[in-house]
Amino acid sequence: MTEPYAVAVPKGYRVGVWEVREPLATGAFGSVYAARRTAESTELPRTAALKFLPTGTATPRRLTHLRELVEREVELYRRLKQPRLVRMYETLTVDDPDRPELDGATVLVLERAEGSLSALLTAEPRPEAGPALLAQICEGLAQLHGAGWVHGDLKPANVLLMDDGSVRLADFNMAAELEGTHAYTPAFSTPDYTPPELLWTEIGERGRRIRPSADVWAFGVLAHLVLTDSFPLPGGTPTARRDAAAAYARGTDELRLSPELPDDWRQIISACLTRTHQDRVCGEALLDRVRAAAGTGHRSFRLPRLRPAHRRSRRIAVLAAGAALAALGYGITTWTGPGDDGGSKAGETRKVTPATYGASELRTDKGVPVAYRRLIVDSAHDCVQPEITPALIAAMLKVESDFDPDLSDPDAGEEGEYGIARWTPSILRWWIRADGVPAKETPRPPLTPSESIPAMARYLCFAEPRLEAGLSGDRRVLVAAAYRTSYKSVNNAGGVPPKYRDYAARVAHYLKEYTPAVKK
Amino acid sequence: MYSIIVVPPPTTEDERDLSQIRLAPGERLTFGRSAHDNDLRITHDGVSRRAGEITAQGAFWILSNLSREQTYVVENPEGAGEHVKIAPGRLDAPIPFEFSRIVLPAAGDLLALQVWAPRHDYLSGTGGLDGATTAPAFSLDRTKRYFAVLAALCEPRLRGTPHAPLPTVDQVADRLRPTWPAASRTSVQWNIDYLAVKLRLKPGPESADTGPRLNGKKESLVSLALRFDLVREDDLAVLASRSSGRVPR
């Protein structure tokens, strides 16, 4: 890191409840530091990333547009909370007249990441998990576009990798809310990721017009870089590549993607890097194709960790204990026959699920209905959290409804609970869509298992990393309790809240029962 | 997406023909006396049938001298005599200037073909050259006259009166005369027009037909420059020192 820091903050500096630790990164506008919480809090995590933006009146760079950039970013964070976007916990303003260079600076308190995609690519060009990472980046874009925003500056440095290896999009200085088909962003760009129609484009007084298709182009460039360690357009310098992009867009040159690309990815990247924005694939369709190419619907994947996870050792211990107990009943396997037990409700597609689907992770002899095996196993695999296993989801479905797809309990809570996962419809609305975008309308009962089960897995996947590290008990049971109440109540209670002990004990019982003795 | 603008020499029929030819990177423009082989016809007997070729090459351009005997001179009008000589037959000579005047010696007359390269890049902020840094979309050469003109236009608002009326073209010329003695209404207006091209100002709906009204253009330039901090208070130093005693800095 040879660049000077845009904002220099000494180690140990206090802002609000935060104590500044080591510097993490700097950009053209602000600098990011690690920080730890120094006071008790139930709302805030123990560590965070603080982004300092020099908006003070006494800073040497008295930049009016900087304020505007900061306002954009804060506005987006306030309004958009999506699983694939970095979260903002609070904003602070430095009040420190003794340090004129910091006084008045805006501080965004953000979710702490392990590193960025750009750091990962430096350490490991063509990462093995590339397709899975791209699928998650694409989900992030779909979430942004679905909510009516354009990122405007998608590049590896703005893709963050979290502790659990999942991906979040960050850095929304250039982001803009769509007005009709386009938005206005400040006139900044990163040359290698700028679509040709925005090269030297006209600029009005409100900035330049940008469409979601600009992010799609940037995604195409990024995907090519991740998969082949090279840019899609030829040239040794950004300027040469910019000229190549211009020549390509004018039609005087063809797009020649790296021959290393697999066919499905070649088609996806070509659909992103079209000459004109009209021809570019749009967010939803892109996401479907990227998911299919990444194979996230069928295969379990584990994203790379930049640092060994501290939680893993505990998890292995838990599994080993479970395995020892489960081993007692193992060896008397009775294969259930292929789906003849009311499987028609499992999903509209009526796939024939082999009775042994996912047998290495979910026992076949303990009464988990065959019709739901595929849904349960696939939903668990869609989550990167190792705690969210098929056995956990099956155990929870057992306790919630005893696998009753027609459960209807209108008297529970204010609006009732329905379906195999006992969803409250207004909450299900937030989790029903695979891309993380809330559904437009609250779903109405009956709620099908094909809606309920993946949504349950998505909620668990969201809640698990939000449970604090020091809670007592099996984290899988804790996250189940979080599903029944909320992750906040579990954090506040320091474990399973007393009211839900019985529920948790039953989940623990079935979890043990459904977990096979040996994990492949 | 153009990066180079060619302004043909004024023709005798229409002295004020300000047609501009825009070239995108990789595009070429041939010029000469013959009407068939050239994209730009220069009707003067002293000019070769096929006189030369201009090719946009990214943010700069290259010139080929296709004549057999004449040396072309490419001048930098703001460069205090700075120029490049292109010998007959020389192909693809790179031209580094933002403003250039190709002087074609034509039987006693000197015909000037202007070429502008408004997309030159400049280092910005802390960013390096790796292409991964978010860079502003504008690049201004702070030593050029257009920058002094822009600073003079922004001056009243930068000095602390946010809604101050903009100076007129004549006032700007007067303001700049101490450092630029040749400043005139025409040269200032030329620079304002050039800035609109350089900053890629979107023509407003009201100025679609280019009437004599130029207030809209000045107003847009100033609001863009202030909004994106293209001119800051420190930059007013490029103006003459006349009023500097008034402003504590």
TrEMBL record, chain A:
Residues 18-301 form the Protein kinase domain. GO terms for cellular component: cytoplasm. InterPro entries: Kinase-like_dom_sf (IPR011009), Lysozyme-like_dom_sf (IPR023346), Prot_kinase_dom (IPR000719), Ser_Thr_kinase (IPR053235). The keyword Glycoprotein does not apply. This is Putative Serine/threonine-protein kinase ark1. Transmembrane segments: none annotated. The lineage of its organism: Bacteria, Bacillati, Actinomycetota, Actinomycetes, Kitasatosporales. SMART domains: S_TKc (SM00220). Keywords: Kinase, Transferase. GO terms for molecular function: ATP binding; protein kinase activity. It comes from Streptomyces afghaniensis 772.
From TrEMBL, chain B:
It comes from the Bacteria. InterPro entries: SMAD_FHA_dom_sf (IPR008984). This is FHA domain-containing protein. It comes from Streptomyces afghaniensis 772.
